[in-house]
Amino acid sequence: MTQLFILALSWWIPAFLCGVTTEKEFAVLEGRSLTIPCHYEPQYATYVKYWCQGRTREFCSSLARTDDPRVVNPAQDKVSIFDDPVQLVFTVTMNNLKEGDSGWYMCGVEIGGLWSADVSTFTNIKVIHGMSVVNSRIYEDEGSTATVECHYSERYRESEKKWCRSGDWRSCLSTGPDGSYEDSSVAITDDRTRAFTVTLKKLEMRDTGWYWCSAGQQKITVHVVVAPKPTTTVSVTSPLMSRSPAYLPPPKPITKDSWKGHSHMMASVAVLSSVVVLVGAIVLVTRLWRLHRKDPLREVDDRNSKFTRISGDAGDFQSAAVIFLNKDSQEVHMY
User: Fold this and answer.
1) pLDDT number for residue 72
2) How high is the pLDDT of residue 333?
3) Which residues have a Cβ under 8 Å from the Cβ of 22 and sit 6 or more positions away?
4) Model confidence at 77, in pLDDT bands (50, 70, 90)?
5) What's residue 323's pLDDT?
6) Phi and psi for 294 in degrees, rounded to 5?
7) Phi/psi at 2 (nearest 5 deg)?
8) 143-to-53, 116, 166, 228, 229 alpha-carbon distances in Å
9) pLDDT band at 7 (very low <50, low <70, confident <90, very high)
10) 270: confidence class by pLDDT, cuts 50, 70, 90
11) pLDDT tens sequence across 97-133
12) How confident is the model at residue 162 (pLDDT cuts 50, 70, 90)?
């Protein structure tokens, strides 16, 4: 009896400890599709997986199984199942959901046998009517274009679609009979299936704010944020700036050869300067020496000749002056 109890536990314990996992709840708009991933442990990779509707295993209506021989077409089948043993997950896709499809569902791994229980987990699916938006927060730069994708449930397919600025009913833009609207700043396009697209053109800073898109009486908010346009800085270098030390090329390193070349140049400049100074000194000395050698008696003769021209008569020698020249002091005395 003890061995039988241990054998039963060996089958039941893995079922509780190593089960299947998925999200506890899903919400989807009416008329849309939903895919549910069900993850399982590696030891269940080769087992049959199934999807059923119900709160308990005993009262769960089977909707899809991996051992079903029918060809699976997820795009057309109401319910389809696909197992990926490499990723250890099987996915269930439900199409064109209605409000009546809301309820509890179960992901299960069929173990089989008298002393074993299936490994399973439950999730709750809510099919709602209303609206949703792909991205409720839009961030774009000034001057660019933003796109908002608004989804609605099937019952609002023929309803009027609007795009409005929150708090200002006069700003509402509505689609026409053809399901579209367009002006210089906004374009609205309705595909008449389950979504309409709002395109905001040439965004400006004043376009920042809260908006909402609506279908019939349903609406959902969208926050649009416009950032300042990035500025590109162009550096212009003027001729004066190019002469600045900051713009000069780095100095060349002083090598032994370059230093020898500079040394010869400096020696030549020094010799030439010395010659010029020496010649200038010689010229200056020569001129001073000539001035110093000038004969003072020649000046006296000049003065006598002038005096002689003034006194042209011989009788005038009675009142002639006698000139004594002091050679040492170069003073002239007249009597």
Assistant:
1) 74
2) 53
3) 36, 37, 38, 39, 107, 121, 123
4) confident
5) 52
6) -65, 135
7) -65, -40
8) 51, 65, 22, 9, 7
9) very low
10) confident
11) 998 999 999 999 998 765 678 899 999 999 988 888 8
12) very high
Please list, in sequence order, all residues whose beta carbon lies within 8 angstroms of the beta carbon of residue 175, skipping any fewer than 6 positions away: 160, 161, 162, 181, 188, 190, 196
CA atoms of 15 and 322, how far apart (whole Å):
160
Q: What type of residue is 214?
A: S
Distance set, CA 129 to CA 27, 71, 230 (Å): 10, 31, 42
Is 183 in contact with 198 (CB distance < 8 Å)? no
Question: What single letter denotes the amino acid at residue 224?
Answer: V
Confidence of residue 266 (pLDDT cuts 50, 70, 90): confident
Tokens at 8, concatenated = 């039963």
In three-state form (DSSP H/G/I as H, E/B as E, the rest C), the secondary structure along 173-219 is EECCCCCEEECCCEEEEECCCCEEEEEECCCCHHHCEEEEEEECCEE
Contact call for residues 213 and 161 (beta carbons, < 8 A): yes
**Cα first-last separation, the chain:** 177
Tell me the backbone φ, ψ of residue 75, rounded to 5 degrees. -75, -25
Q: Tokens in use for 183?
A: 């002006």
Give the residue carrying structure tokens 């003072």: 296
pLDDT tens digits, residue range 22-72? Answer: 999 998 888 889 999 999 999 999 999 999 999 888 889 999 999 987 777
